Amino acid sequence: EMVSVKDLSEKIGKPAAEIIKKLFLLGILATINQEIDFDTAALVASEYDIELEHKMDKTFEEVLSDEDHEDDSKDLENRPPVVTIMGHVDHGKTSLLDVIRSTHVTDQESGGITQHIGAYMVNVHGQAITFLDTPGHEAFTAMRARGAQVTDIAILVVAADDGVMPQTIEAINHSKAAEVPIIVAINKIDKPGANPEKVMQELTEYGLVCEDWGGDTVMVPVSAHTKEGLDKLLEMVLLVAEMQELRANANRMAKGSIIEAKLDKGRGPVATVLVQNGTLKVGDTIVAGTAYGRVRAMLNDKGRRVDEAGPSVPVEVLGFSEVPEAGDVLYAVEDDKLSRQVAEERRNKQKIQQMKVMSKVSLDELFSQIAQGQVKDLNIVVKADVQGSVEAMRQSLEKLSNDEVRVRVIHGGVGAIAETDVMLASVSNAIIIGFHVRPDAKAREAAEKENVDLRLYRVIYEAIDDVEKAMKGMLEPVY
Ligand code: GDP
């Protein structure tokens, strides 16, 4: 079995130049593409304390994903739904999260102090629901951008005295892009100016039609202050969850996502893990992003030490080598060495990727991307100064769809281009078109980092013209 220096470098996560030097010291003159035999490769690897025992034609990452096999349906059991609360600022997201937590965690369960670990579980008629504690679509999409899809159901909060607002629309579009079902909580119905019917009317414009009006979106009038409607809301969550058939296999090594992570002065790296499949146990070897380690201890959302956590259960985990990032996917693995080696492989890859620009859709390259079959949908985020322009752009752009490529405006909104627009564009492989608006500093930075094509126009016709030309491969590149 032979392996090139380059492959070995990628596999063990060490620079090729270092490996070449080590080979030289062993009396072997090698170049980066040179093939060396397995024993030599193993010897070099052992100098880094890495044991080459897996087949060399697979990366450790691939070995890891092999372990991530599909479950037999007979091993699957129902698991609790994981819910994120989204909506416009001040419509009551935090109030709802607080009141649900305080009313549905029983005293003996809580044992005094509830811990804010990023997620909590409540009990509704003996059935569990997991709530993510960071409300809003920003966190939701940031997690998705890192690969974690944890939310099963989005509760969209709309204040009955305020109605549909820009962030309401964003939340709808972000949920739709993730294909997460939406339950609407029409909040603040205790207020004198509350008008739930008007909210329902406004929501129809965004494709959310309540069941009474022949649609299929569950809408529940609630008040975080008087607690009216809360039980119904939670029952509806369970109902929608039941239709989704959320299932997992508790009897396997855990897979989950990092919800939050920090460096704790006394305890070292601490991360909240939402287990999504399997059961995480104290003592398990774990890897998440470029962090690895062994579960030293786990604490639940009530601050209690636990020995294991099953599907949909959030736990604080101690024992990581470094602080993982929110959205990183966590695996527990049988093999101690595997976790460390996967982490190293990733760190190496990260370095390589930071150097080379990832291929995202761009107007300049659209034509060749279409030709190579890389692009079938041209997704666009439109931001403009007035709603009328958003609609005009949407209609004209979507009309450009042809047999090769479908043009879709996945989000349209009024106002400056924000970081969340860029994150949505990034995860949806979309371009951004701004009309009479500019990106703020954070958005510009994010667009550069995420390599999102962001274009600004002052004439609608020019925007349409550019997209049309790009689709035909006739766009003049701008230098
Ligand atoms: P968030 O920004 O969406 O998290 O909104 P908050 O939960 O912080 O609530 C914003 C304001 O609305 C606060 O002053 C809350 O007390 C108030 N509020 C939230 N829910 C209700 C409600 O059901 N009824 C009334 N009257 N006020 C509410």
Report a brief summary of the structure.
With 479 residues, the protein is α/β, with parallel strands linked by helices.
What does this entry look like structurally?
This protein is an alpha/beta fold and 479 residues long. 35% of the residues lie in helices and 25% in strands. It has 16 helices and 23 strands. It has helices at residues 5-12, 16-25, 38-47, 60-67, 93-104, 107-110, 137-145, 166-177, 196-204, 230-244, 336-355, 366-371, 387-398, 419-427, 441-450, 460-472, and strands at 2-4, 35-37, 77-78, 82-87, 119-124, 127-132, 153-159, 182-187, 219-221, 247-248, 255-264, 268-277, 280-281, 285-288, 291-299, 305-306, 308-309, 314-320, 329-333, 377-384, 406-414, 430-435, 454-457. The strands form six sheets. A six-stranded mixed sheet has the order 5-6-4-7-8-9, with helices on both faces. Helix 7 crosses helix 14, helix 13 runs parallel beside helix 16 (460-472) and helix 14 runs parallel beside helix 15 (441-450). The mean pLDDT is 88. Residues 87, 89-95, 135, 187-188, 190-191, 223-225 line the site of guanosine-5'-diphosphate. It is found in: Cytoplasm. One of its GO terms (cellular component) is cytosol. Keywords: Cytoplasm, GTP-binding, Initiation factor, Nucleotide-binding, Protein biosynthesis. GO terms for molecular function: GTP binding; GTPase activity; translation initiation factor activity. Residues 81-229 are annotated as: G-domain.
Overview features:
six-stranded mixed sheet, six-stranded antiparallel beta barrel, single chain, globular, binds guanosine-5'-diphosphate, 16 helices, alpha/beta, 35% helix, 479 residues
